[in-house]
Amino acid sequence: MQRKKVKISKKFVTGLLGGIAAGLFIAGAQAAPITTPVGLNSGEQYRLVFVTSTTTNALSSDINYYNNFVNDLANLNPVLASLGTTWTAIASTETVNARANTATHPVANGAGAPIYLLDGSTKIADSNADLWSGTLDAPIDLYEDGTSPISAFLTVWTGTIQTGLSFPDRRLGETAIAYAGRTDQTGGGWIRNSVNALGQEHSLYAISGILTVTAIPEPGILAVFCVGLTGLIVVRRKRAA
Questions:
Q1: Nearest CA to 162 among 95, 97, 66?
Q2: Domain ranges of the chain
Q3: What confidence tens digit (pLDDT) does each residue in 210-228 have?
Q4: CATH homologous superfamily of domain 45-212?
Q5: In this structure, are residues 232 and 24 in contact, taking their beta carbons and an 8 Å threshold?
Q6: Which is the most buried residue in 42, 68, 92, 100, by most CB within 10 A?
Q7: pTM
Q8: What span, in angstroms and rounded, lies between the C-alpha atoms of 111 and 204?
């Protein structure tokens, strides 16, 4: 039986290649957080951290208020919601300090896991002890969608000192003022840079629970073709309009 040759026109190939480029551009334009850091192998553990794009005052003395604030914000992002983790605030109130609230106590919680930003590469600490050593490897300066704030830095409510403990009369919701950090700092200022009135609106730091790397198959040629076909359809629709 003689096979019938399928003739693919040059116009179609050109259009498909253009569609691939357009599809990749469209995919790239839709920013999304990267939740599996590069360089980690299947089975390795890690945590993620971000600074909230929305703000709150620090009038509440209930740590659950701050935990719910960051957890609800994270789960509005489908990529973060798909992780199935619980996000907690790196913050202290009168009844609980930050390292207890986030399960990052170097003794009670052990070494923990390395902590990364949502860009897929930047590590801010190697372990629980490193997080509370007084110096970060990099500032916590990316939002929950993986993008950077427009301003040079953000003020962040913490109520916490460099060791992850709280300090009387400087905790969230306790008196009239509390400690706050800054997103451009890697020294102690990341967690304690200023003392601010509780009624002010500032961001919070959020940290995930411990996550485990799972094997992810590499995208095949079919996926690339689909991206190209999607881009081609988009381009043709725009021309038709």
A1: 97
A2: 45-212
A3: 999 997 544 433 434 444 4
A4: Mannose-Binding Protein A, subunit A (3.10.100.10)
A5: no
A6: 92
A7: 0.79
A8: 24
